[in-house]
UniProtKB/TrEMBL annotation:
Record protein name field: TauD/TfdA family dioxygenase
Family label: Belongs to the TfdA dioxygenase family.
Gene Ontology MF term list: dioxygenase activity
Originating species: Novosphingobium anseongense
Classification via PANTHER family: (3R)-3-[(CARBOXYMETHYL)AMINO]FATTY ACID OXYGENASE_DECARBOXYLASE (PTHR43779:SF3), DIOXYGENASE RV0097-RELATED (PTHR43779)
Length: 295
């Protein structure tokens, strides 16, 4: 076969060697799909894909989705390729890019099936910062004690856009709060997600705003502790980018974040593999408001 995939760490990561001329060959696509489930995140070092080549790979893996219509920024030379940058001439509202400095799962605040995978290619790098960290939420669940698994089973978590960008601002204005709340409904997802294939993972991130039926400080404290658990070194791979790198990760089983950077020249091109699994539903009316109560 014209593809070699080597483990990076025992519980996460694979380094892919393949001639990009064969990237969409059926046997190569099958190997990538299998490795995506097993390794969680795959690195194609300096493969230097064009937008069209990245879209072709996305389509071959199962079909693209575009989840950016309501997010500031723009598509670039090809439809469904999203340009991630702090350059205000492209993105005049960088809240959402800055929010990626915190652990998150793409699409967790949308009333849609979660994107199956994200493909990100490096076009221009920042002088400092900008690495991307990935945490394996399957491994984080598997590593829990039997007692903790039993405790968390059945817990429901409220996920909101507001929570995901709240850390960016010390005191957000009411206008910003209203805008964030208008972007999407509060979503209610299981803390332990049982996937269609029977595997289980935690579903965590900065957008996890509280636990249904639990006082706000108690629920958030539990979620933050679990996030720290999931981000321990054994479960995490940090990718230090080179121009031309492509990284593909299983968005339904990993959370990720970017090491902070300030360089407005950093540019990444993202495509998204559409998903078919929807772990939760729109939260019941008043669920979000109850999370804001202290007792």
């Amino acid at each position: 076969m014209s593809i070699v995939i080597e483990p990076i760490k025992p519980l996460i990561g694979g380094r892919v060697t393949v001639d990009k001329a064969h990237l969409t060959d059926p046997e190569v696509i099958a190997a990538i799909r299998a490795a995506l489930e097993e390794r969680g995140v795959l690195v194609f070092p300096e493969i230097d894909l064009s937008d069209d080549e990245q879209l072709a790979l996305t389509d071959a893996l199962g079909g693209r989705g575009n989840y950016n219509q309501r997010v500031p920024g723009s598509d670039v030379s090809a439809k469904d390729v999203y340009k991630i940058t702090l350059d205000r001439s492209v993105n005049n509202e960088p809240d959402y890019v800055l929010g990626t400095f915190f652990w998150h799962v793409d699409g967790a605040t949308m009333d849609l099936p979660l994107p199956k995978a994200t493909l990100l290619s490096a076009r221009t790098l920042s002088d400092a910062g900008g690495s991307t960290e990935f945490a394996n939420l399957y491994a984080a669940y598997d590593g829990l004690s039997t007692e903790d698994k039993r405790l968390y089973e059945g817990m429901k978590v409220i996920h909101t856009v507001e929570a995901s960008v709240r850390p960016v601002f010390a005191v957000p204005s009411q206008e910003r709060l209203d805008r964030w709340r208008a972007i999407a409904h509060a979503m209610e997802h299981p803390l332990v997600w049982t996937h269609a294939d029977g595997r289980r993972s935690l579903l965590l991130g900065s957008h996890a705003d509280g636990i249904v039926g639990m006082p706000n400080p108690h629920g958030r404290a539990l979620l933050w502790r679990l996030q720290q658990w999931a981000a321990q070194p054994d479960f995490v791979y940090t990718h230090h980018w080179q121009v031309g790198d492509l990284v593909l990760w299983n968005n339904q089983g990993l959370m990720h974040r970017v090491v902070p950077y300030t360089d407005t020249g950093r540019v990444m091109h993202r495509t998204t593999l559409a998903g078919h699994e929807k772990p939760g539903q729109v939260a019941a009316e008043g669920s979000f408001e109850r999370l804001l109560e202290v007792g």
